[in-house]
């Protein structure tokens, strides 16, 4: 903690005492990031036996081998650390990504993080992580490059929001810890990414002008309170759940590149959160050697300078030189290796770990150091790791589908005689099953024909099969002898005569499938669904007064047709993975009662999100100023529902909202102090830092209890949600009016009731004080609201801690 004393003056100035609201935002306070040195050494906290093994391993390494242990090399995986045969170390194989082992054959493609968040189901989050862990391990990967909690989703148009979970840090925090627990229970290492402030794809990396000037990557300028209460919050959960590694991001944070930012790496991550594992760079995200290392970076990936550049590394032999000439301490290099090898031994990757499936050997990225590395590959190619995971994929696909509107009993379908399936998102793929190759990323709207099961880029997955909606609907409709007619051409559908081939017409029900492409490297240009979606819905509803709209989207959509009376139902199906059609049919026909809830807000118009937009402009795109790309997070804590609530703005569908085929109620809210001690201090009692930070931040101080009832006549699940109204802090930025601090998915038979408890930890009740550099429970009343969405409170109460 002594670093804080040394740097506190700098810290207070640089991280901003100015308010985060527009009126008081002072950009100049965010142009530098305070220094925090030296880099904290791992104590192997929680991993003590493994640390001893890592130390014994380290003792045998030459300096050259040490440099190799922290520098990516060419090899069979997306990222590779060279084997050391002499020591029986097979090297490390790092593979993408957050929803599948990206490029592997005979592997599952799971619902995206976004879909998983929309399920609000902790058990399914865990099982998805567990199955992904089994598949990565089965293919011989040591490290999965996932899950994603950055982007958090500040910008509604962010191109990678779907890889992560939700713009709410609490929901994302729960999702990430469940995922990591599941993944690492198999012996796989998880790598939570991208740390931190990676909220847009535009200018995520530096660029070079025609004249050769380097224009630096966008700087996410974030005040210290917002850093703690929003963006780093889920990373603390990840550290607490024992995550092996953290990937630093491409962007700059308060002026310094994330992979050489000593405040965020040494300060917040390693010191405050007590992270004991290793920080690896995003691919080509390292911009220096010794400075990055001293700022807390432990591993350079893929071991090249720049992205896709085969060149020297800032690490590699530069490390050997720097240790030999005294500019880098060997103790710091040793700490890097201990951080890398402790989770490896803790997860027992040294014993009986599967070899790398040669079919997954994509060659990764070429780098020169070391030049020729032989990785031990397995003898059997194309190992099928899918097991029975399709069952979970189908279930989670349904669970992450949100029923937003349902009038005139449109859903569930009751054996309609004449069904129309419309739109270019309804049918099968025609360009192949792998969304990280050119047919799928030619333009901002992706490919024209075929349903959208996942997004594009390194967060995608190679599908071994795909159940498209049209095929699944045909199969189900056959059971009722229904007629199924389909038109998949959106250009045709968006003209008034586009539906003239239907007969008989109008059909009993028109199912319109819309999609929204999103991919790494590109932010979305619109929040509308793609491919003339608005015109398509207009022409379908002009013919069909029972139109059900289904969206498959890599993020949120605004829905200008939501109040159209001929739109009788809306399902936001997100990105469901390979069982897409089955997951949907289960809901359409009522075999599964919808229980998904929005993990974000659907506002009325795109402009409603302009308070936190992507930083971009023609001037920026042609700038010659290396430091021009500045993204000021002026809205502070007020993103998504926190913004709409604070400004009392009406929205189309609020955060946490979702319908069921049944109805539910909540009653009998009570809140009690379960801490025992009557004197709860405003600051956390000091304690030895463990992964996750001061353990007293996780003490359960209060417990809220409600009764949840199924008041309808069919079985189903609902999601009671607890929101706190924490006190406003005098002369501080606004505290959001309500923040999510608890949720449970509850399955109930008709007429059945159950008691649900929400445990409230010290962190849940605190705000981050920039002045005290501590989590503080403020004096004043704390409001408690429990409801079925962020705007549908069924029971309220309040209590005072201080
Ligand atoms: C860059 C992406 O940002 C990261 O998420 C991914 O893991 C690496 N590329 C490797 O593909």
From TrEMBL:
Q: Per its UniProt record, what InterPro entries does this chain match?
A: Cellulose_deg_GH3, Fn3-like, GH, Glyco_hydro_3_C, Glyco_hydro_3_C_sf, Glyco_hydro_3_N, Glyco_hydro_3_N_sf, Ig-like_fold
Keyword GTP-binding, does the record have it? no
Q: Does the keyword Signal apply?
A: yes
Q: What is its EC number?
A: 3.2.1.21
Q: Which SUPFAM superfamilies match?
A: (Trans)glycosidases, Beta-D-glucan exohydrolase, C-terminal domain
Query: Could you give a GO molecular-function term held by this entry?
Result: beta-glucosidase activity
> Where located?
Secreted
Q: For this UniProt entry, what's an example GO CC term?
A: extracellular region
* Pfam families per record: Fn3-like, Glyco_hydro_3, Glyco_hydro_3_C
Biological processes, Gene Ontology terms: glucan catabolic process
Q: Which UniProt keywords apply?
A: Carbohydrate metabolism, Glycoprotein, Glycosidase, Hydrolase, Polysaccharide degradation, Secreted, Signal
Domain Fibronectin type III-like, by residue range, is: 718-790
List the catalytic activities from the record.
Hydrolysis of terminal, non-reducing beta-D-glucosyl residues with release of beta-D-glucose
**Source organism superkingdom:** Eukaryota
Describe which pathway this protein belongs to, using the record's wording: Glycan metabolism; cellulose degradation
Q: What family does this chain come from, according to its entry?
A: Belongs to the glycosyl hydrolase 3 family.
Designated name of the protein: Probable beta-glucosidase G
Instruction: Tell me which species this is from.
Output: Aureobasidium melanogenum (strain CBS 110374) (Aureobasidium pullulans var. melanogenum)
